[in-house]
Amino acid sequence: MSDLLERLRGRGWRMTSQRRVVAEVLDGDHVHFTADEVHTRAAQRLPEISRATVYNTLGELVALGEVIEVATDGRAKRYDPNAHHPHQHLVCSGCGTVRDVHPARDPLADLPAEERFGFTVSRAEVTYRGLCPSCA
Amino acid sequence: MSDLLERLRGRGWRMTSQRRVVAEVLDGDHVHFTADEVHTRAAQRLPEISRATVYNTLGELVALGEVIEVATDGRAKRYDPNAHHPHQHLVCSGCGTVRDVHPARDPLADLPAEERFGFTVSRAEVTYRGLCPSCA
DNA sequence: ATCCTACGATGGACAGGTTCTAAGTCAAGA
DNA sequence: TCTTGACTTAGAACCTGTCCATCGTAGGAT
């Protein structure tokens, strides 16, 4: 993720301690935090960081394509830093855990033109639902 | 949809005028109202119906599997009474409109066993995103 | 090294969507 | 008809997310 910081600096980002901490929180595999969870974890390192800053930074990361916004349920959005390899999500209906998964085919390819109703379809998000081994 | 009322009564539901009106509002094809829209339309028939009752009833219908909850993008959830015929959703990123669509393949079939991580996967929800003709 | 200043951070107000609570009402079984 | 607990109500509370005015500071200029 430190090359994320490099990329951002290369794009003219002013590198502040707040942005660094948010990027560090999102570092790591299989992480799907809500904005509030990111804020809580960031605040452990930088207690005075504000929620607005976390929202701003996450929004910028999404706009830059470095992070993906995932709406797994009607509740808070989750932020997925694994933006450079296309994937979908497997969600446990019991505990809410999210795993990245890789279907065999691109789901966009399976929506025929006559089922697009004139829409310009740009992406397909698949949420597989079921029970994880612990909850089953 | 009147057999919906029958099914609900059969499951021990107390049949109130409020629940009847909510079920009637959801009747019909290609309907994807928000809770607030359901409330507005229900209130045309039953002016004193409260928002809480609409939310309660919608939640119960979802729990019973009679209605599907569709999470659009940070906006209000939409409620889809077409729960008995498998389909997916096409959402306009501009205005939030939802259309039912039918992909050529069952997306569940495209998640290989080694990508299931021991989960018991029961369903796949696909949300296609793009711009509708008016928003494009 | 210090100064400037535009960009970023802050926190508090605000808004939309949803859930909760306490009190009153009524469907349906006895 | 009576009784009772499930249902409804209004409004407060809550959660997620955005906006605003003000303050602070990163990083280029000097």
Automatic annotation (TrEMBL), chains A, B:
Signal sequence residues: none
Keyword Repressor in annotation: yes
Binding site for Zn(2+): C92, C95, C132, C135
Assigned keywords, A-Z: DNA-binding, Metal-binding, Repressor, Transcription, Transcription regulation, Zinc
Gene Ontology molecular function terms on file: DNA-binding transcription factor activity; transcription cis-regulatory region binding; zinc ion binding
Residue runs in coiled coils: none
Names of the cofactor(s): Zn(2+)
Biological processes annotated in GO: negative regulation of DNA-templated transcription; regulation of secondary metabolite biosynthetic process
Cofactor note: Binds 1 zinc ion per subunit.
Keyword Chaperone tagged: no
CDD domains attached to this UniProt entry: Fur_like (cd07153)
Similarity section: Belongs to the Fur family.
Name of the protein this chain belongs to: Transcriptional repressor
